[in-house]
Amino acid sequence: MATPAPSRGAGRALVLACGNSLRSDDGVGLKIGCAVEQQPPRGNLNVILSHQLLPEHALDVSEADIVVFVDCSAVTAAGVVTTLAVQPAEKLPRILTHHLDPASMLTMSQELYGHMPARAFAVTVGAGSFEMGETLTATVEAAIPAAVAAIHKALLSL
Amino acid sequence: MPQTITIDPVTRLEGHGRITLKTNEQGEVSEAYFTVTQVRGFEKFCEGRPFYEMPSMMARICGICPVSHLIASAKACEAIMAVQIPPTAAKLRRALNLAQSIQSHALSFFYLASPDLLLGMDAAPADRNIFGVAKAFPELGRAGVGLRRFGQHMIELLGRKRIHPGWIVPGGVNEPLDPVKREEILALLPEAYTNIKMALAAYKNIAGKFEDEIANFANFPGAFLGMVGEDGGLEFTDGKLRLIDATGNILHDKLDAEHFDDVIGEAVEPFSYMKFPYYKALGYPNGAYRVGPLARLNIATHAGTPLADIELKKFKQLANGPVLGSFHFHHARLIDILYGLETIEQLLGDPSILDTHVRATAGVNRLEGAGIAEAPRGTLMHHYKVNEEGKMTWANLVIATGQNNNAMNRGVLQAAQRYVKADKLQDGMLNRVEAVIRTFDPCLSCSTHAFGQMPLSIELQSPDGKLLDSVHRR
């Protein structure tokens, strides 16, 4: 039986922010996650900060009605904020301990726990440097407010 | 004609390794090598650093078992400081070390090994993963995720971080246990018990299907090393080492960290960066031994907790003497988990666990110190030397996976001679060769990760370089 859609902002929300704080811009996801946690745009919001996506997160994902995955992007230009809707993966990676992606997380939450969020987004910020270091490049640091705003918008879409 | 088969990289391991098989004129596998292709350098680049930085620095060696490195390193530092840590700090460390073994063993058994065990060694490679297990056995998939989550969450509660927690320091731990956290951990235990009991039952049901693998996966006489408590029972953190031979006779007992290298030597081979520790009295390679869950259960007289004692008794009935087949590492890992849960419950149930005196302090009182702990994969030893200012001048680490190196190589040869027919490569037979390595759950280099796809390509070449056959996994 389909779960009735909760009213706007009433469902359980999850922000799963990933990154490596020792690899310069790779840590931007964690900083964005902290910012969302400090000023949550809605109630019933769980923020998880993690080095990477793990199979153990499948339970958290399965318990949410909306999830926003946050990470840097090695593909887009430095500082560019992108919001993408995430669909469950049809094929899952064979080796998962270091290679899980948001689409696979949705599929895993459905297969293991029989539920996945009605809506899922990935908010990414293009990274400029992955060198050793605990500080972000200026371009990426400046993009944090836009990324937080994008997450707020996504979280309030349900 | 002689040929060489290379499996590179070996999949579903922590780190990166390569297997090379060589055949003789008759096409039979005559040589096998398990090669570790990375060099780390931790023992060299710590030189010149203050000794008290060592635990947090050495924990970076591994993203799976940082707690064991923290403990062995802190104990080596405490030998330099010549201090005894407060009893509550010792209990808290024991609990954290067991939480780590639980999460690590859950990763090994459910994520890495269970696809072979539950879906079969010959199952399609595309299905032979935790997702395939989750589809076919959703309850077991959830149990695996649940046990790993329990261990990781407990590490995060105590050490503030799941990976590389900094809570353990020279002299003890840096803050006492919060009663709220204790209650949270205790509340998670019932589900964890349900999960491990389910896993043990499932394993026992399917183990009978693997008689051939049990007989041919690194199944040979050899010695076993591990830690035991004062009473000879299972111990992970604060005991001394016992070495037994293949018949169960004690070769060496009550070995402490200070005298570790009087008894254990290290050899090197040109084909691998991993060292080959051995028992000096028997020389190399005759003194090769195994460590880890199988060794721990073989050397311990009892577990010391009610449910694990029952399981250990049954386990010991698998053989008349030490259990020699390395396939049984999987079973032993599950008993380790059960023991860990029971011991955590006992430790956290003790009111003294909330005592606030959890750290001793001192400066440099000795110029040399060593520490040992049982990591999930077996005995781990850190040995340091410092100058009068406490700056590191020398370090040597003997890791568990290294101590299984010789056995893994012997095991690969044994399995390859049984399963690999060199005229035609088949995925199932090569998977069995890899699966031998997986029984040991080697941790080659957890802190360096590979990004993107990790394909496996195996090529069979004639001596003149002609490609005779190949298998590719994507």
Structural features:
heterodimer, A: 158 residues, alpha/beta, 5 helices, disordered N terminus, B: 474 residues, alpha+beta, five-stranded antiparallel β-sheet, four-stranded mixed β-sheet, 15 helices, 16 strands, globular
Quick synopsis:
By secondary structure, chain A is an alpha/beta fold. Chain A is built from five helices and five strands. Chain B has helices at 42-45, 54-58, 66-81, 87-119, 130-136, 138-159, 179-207, 211-216, 260-263, 293-299, 306-316, 329-349, 400-403, 405-419, 427-440, and strands spanning 4-8, 17-23, 29-36, 168-169, 172-173, 223-228, 240-244, 250-255, 264-267, 276-279, 289-290, 368-375, 378-386, 392-398, 456-461, 467-473.
Ends of chain B: how far apart? 30 Å
As a whole number of angstroms, the C-alpha radius of gyration of chain B is: 22 Å
Report the structural category of chain B: alpha+beta
Q: Would you tell me the overall average pLDDT of chain B?
A: 87
Spans of chain B with pLDDT under 50 lasting ≥5 residues?
446-458
Number of strands of chain A: 5
Structure overview:
The complex is a heterodimer of chains A (158) and B (474). In chain A, helix 1 (28-38) packs across helix 5 (144-155). Chain A has five helices and five strands; from the N terminus they run E-H-E-H-E-E-H-E-H-H. In chain A, 29% of the residues lie in helices and 21% in strands. In chain A, strand 1, helix 1 (28-38) and strand 2 (45-50) form a beta-alpha-beta unit. The longest helix of chain A has 12 residues, at 102-113. Chain A has a five-stranded mixed β-sheet with strand order 2-1-3-5-4, with helices on one face. Chain A has 158 residues and is of the alpha/beta class. Chain B is of the alpha+beta class and 474 residues long. Chain B has helices at residues 42-45, 54-58, 66-81, 87-119, 130-136, 138-159, 179-207, 211-216, 260-263, 293-299, 306-316, 329-349, 400-403, 405-419, 427-440, and strands at 4-8, 17-23, 29-36, 168-169, 172-173, 223-228, 240-244, 250-255, 264-267, 276-279, 289-290, 368-375, 378-386, 392-398, 456-461, 467-473. Chain B has a five-stranded antiparallel β-sheet, covered by helices on one side. In chain B, strands 8-7-6-11 form a four-stranded mixed β-sheet. In chain B, a hairpin with an 8-residue loop joins strand 1 (4-8) and strand 2. The radius of gyration of chain B is 22 Å and the shape is globular. The two termini of chain B are 30 Å apart. The model of chain B is unreliable at 446-458 (pLDDT under 50).
